[in-house]
């Protein structure tokens, strides 16, 4: 399923992230980074795929409900934003001992430029098992079509 | 000469191909009163594709990303590049492995690892002399 995604190898996989981040801190990159690029492992993580008739965006936002995640589109830029609050009441949190706090909490907002030619009016979003799938159908004129070859 | 090259040809590439890449899910671990709690973010994992196991005092948490993807989907951009999460923790002896409870909701796994009865904190009454 994600096997062919690996050919877009722009960085390390998530498991090596801490090491990469540490290395980046030690040896800042000499090359220029995109001014809007986000560090890998930002919340929520996003995958984008394309089929013949649509573009599908997968937002990996565990623990959020459909109401808590806001998906908006403007000028072909898709923005996902929301807030993931603490999972315990403050008085309960005070009574506990924390060992690890790796999960993201707080407000987030991520934007993503989409390819041209999408029919924004017919966009749909679905939430399942912590993954929000946004379906953006392509406009009719951009779908691939077969051209019949006529005999001379 | 041909023999030598044939013998040297390692089988490693084939093995490496089989090695499944895994994601490391972020976790929160905290302790309150009589139990340890573990919360892990595993978006895309369903109740059926989640496997939790305790073997020899090692807790392993594994899950497969199950996404409905149409045929012929090609990637344009990908941050999640594996379809399996895996993480392991060693447990301490006071955890009651039999009584571990787990649930998954919206891609968030919550584990409650209770302490054994004998290791619970107890209050000692101080009697007046």
Automatic annotation (TrEMBL), chain A:
The organism's place on the tree of life at top rank: Bacteria
Cited Gene3D superfamilies: 2.60.40.790
Ranges where the SHSP domain occurs: 37-152
Pfam family, one: HSP20
Family: Belongs to the small heat shock protein (HSP20) family.
PANTHER family named in the record: HEAT-SHOCK PROTEIN 20 FAMILY MEMBER
Protein name from the UniProt record: Hsp20/alpha crystallin family protein
Native source organism of the sequence: Halomonas gemina
From TrEMBL, chain B:
Alphabetized Pfam families for the sequence: HSP20 (PF00011)
Alphabetized InterPro entries for the sequence: A-crystallin/Hsp20_dom, HSP20-like_chaperone, Small_HSP
SUPFAM superfamilies, sorted: HSP20-like chaperones (SSF49764)
Domain SHSP, chain residue ranges per copy: 18-129
Matches recorded under PANTHER family: HEAT-SHOCK PROTEIN 20 FAMILY MEMBER
Family assignment from sequence similarity: Belongs to the small heat shock protein (HSP20) family.
Name the UniProt record assigns to this protein: Hsp20/alpha crystallin family protein
Source species: Halomonas gemina
């Amino acid at each position: 399923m994600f096997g062919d995604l690996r050919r877009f190898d722009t960085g390390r996989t998530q498991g090596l992230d801490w090491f990469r981040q540490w290395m980046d801190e030690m040896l800042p990159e000499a090359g220029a980074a995109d001014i809007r690029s986000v560090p890998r492992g930002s919340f929520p993580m996003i995958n984008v795929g394309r089929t013949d008739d649509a573009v599908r965006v997968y937002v990996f936002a565990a623990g959020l409900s459909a109401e808590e995640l806001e998906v908006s589109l403007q000028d072909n830029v898709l923005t996902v934003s929301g807030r993931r609050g603490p999972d315990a009441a403050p008085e309960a949190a005070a009574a506990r001992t924390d060992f690890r706090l790796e999960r993201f909490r707080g407000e987030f907002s991520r934007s993503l430029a989409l390819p041209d030619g999408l029919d924004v009016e017919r966009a749909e979003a679905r939430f399942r098992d912590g993954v929000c799938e946004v379906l953006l159908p392509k406009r009719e004129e951009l779908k691939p079509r077969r051209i019949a070859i006529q005999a001379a | 000469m041909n023999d030598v090259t044939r013998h040297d040809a390692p089988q490693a590439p084939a093995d490496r191909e089989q090695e499944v890449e895994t994601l490391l899910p972020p976790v929160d671990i905290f302790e309150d009163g009589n139990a340890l709690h573990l919360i892990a973010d595993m978006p895309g994992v369903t109740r059926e594709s989640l496997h939790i196991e305790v073997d020899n005092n090692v807790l392993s948490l594994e899950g497969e990303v199950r996404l409905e993807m149409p045929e012929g989907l090609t990637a344009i951009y990908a941050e999640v590049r594996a379809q399996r999460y895996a993480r392991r923790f060693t447990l301490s002896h006071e955890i009651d492995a039999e009584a571990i409870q787990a649930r998954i909701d919206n891609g968030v796994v919550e584990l409650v690892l209770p302490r054994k009865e004998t290791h619970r904190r107890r209050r000692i009454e101080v009697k007046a002399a």
